[in-house]
Amino acid sequence: MSRILVLVRHGQSEWNLKNLFTGWKDPDLSEKGLEEAISAGKKLKAAGLKFDIAFTSALQRAQHTCQHILDEMGQPKLEIIKNQALNERDYGDLSGLNKDDARKKWGEEQVHIWRRSYDVPPPGGESLRDTGARVWPYYLHNIQPHVLREETVLVAAHGNSLRALIMALEGLSGEEIVKRELATGVPMIYELNADSTIASKKVLE
User: Fold this and answer.
1) pLDDT given for residue 1 in this prediction
2) CA distance 8 to 165
3) pLDDT, position 203
4) Residues comprising the binding site for substrate?
5) What's the rounded Cα separation, in Å, for the pair 90 and 196?
6) If you count DSSP H runs as helices and E runs as strands, how many of each does the chain have, helices first?
7) Which are the catalytic amino acids?
8) Domain with 142 in it: what CATH number?
9) 183 Cα distance to chain centroid
């Protein structure tokens, strides 16, 4: 038996398509996002995986990605645990704004700092470090125990909640993780050792 953790960023959302800051707002998948979720399921099925449990956020773009993946894998009734600890970073006052409009209002440099610094939150929102402060305990207490029991676990979540998780998994610094780009709908397969360190990692492009 192996300890498999699969991370998938949700497929493109309607707001990704419109270049809007999303955060805790709850738009659904775009047509392309739906296709990405279905494609992820097909790739995971082709890789011979079968999940024991799935985790996702409280937001429908991640939940629907999770469900489409499981449908494609022939596991539509698998238990899915939903928790806002896995939600996207809260963009606060930026939520719902077009990214270009935000740059006009606050300046290119300031918006870049909010988007790409590790510990500077946008007004009324969370930094990546703040996001990690809720993701890490949830992973350690709720997700990792399943993996270490030699189960195969799916986590369908968001760019920044997954960045926070990957930072802990791979032992990255704040500076390193903010440079990591996660494509929508692309599964990352981690195999863990018994001590929770990474034995292998594979990205299903």
Assistant:
1) 63
2) 12
3) 98
4) 9-16, 22-23, 61, 88-91, 99, 115-116, 159-160
5) 28
6) 9, 6
7) 10, 88
8) 3.40.50.1240
9) 10
Burial class (CB in 10 A: 0-12, 13-18, 19+), 63: buried
Q: In this predicted model, what pLDDT tens digit does every residue of 171-194 receive, in sequence order?
A: 999 999 999 999 999 999 999 999
Q: What is the pLDDT of residue 197?
A: 96
Q: Could you tell me which of 89, 73, 83, 92 has the C-alpha nearest to residue 141?
A: 83
Are 162 and 12 in contact, with CB atoms under 8 Å apart? no
Cβ atoms of 154 and 60 within 8 Å: the answer is no
Structural domains counted in the chain? 1
Of 102, 90, 101, residue with least CA distance to 23: 90
Residues of the chain with pLDDT under 70: 1
pTM to 2 decimal places? 0.96
Tokens 């997954």 sit at which residue? 162
| Amino acid, single-letter form, for residue 193 | N
CA 101 to chain centroid = 26
Residue 192's Cα: distance from chain center in Å?
Answer: 18
State the Cα–Cα distance between residues 88 and 131, nearest whole angstrom: 8
- Residue 106: the pLDDT is 96
**Residue 77 burial (C-beta neighbours within 10 Å; 0-12, 13-18, 19+):** exposed
Tokens of 188: 């990352």
- Residue 36's nearest CA partner among 15, 9, 54 is 9
Residue span of the structural domain in which 27 resides? 3-203
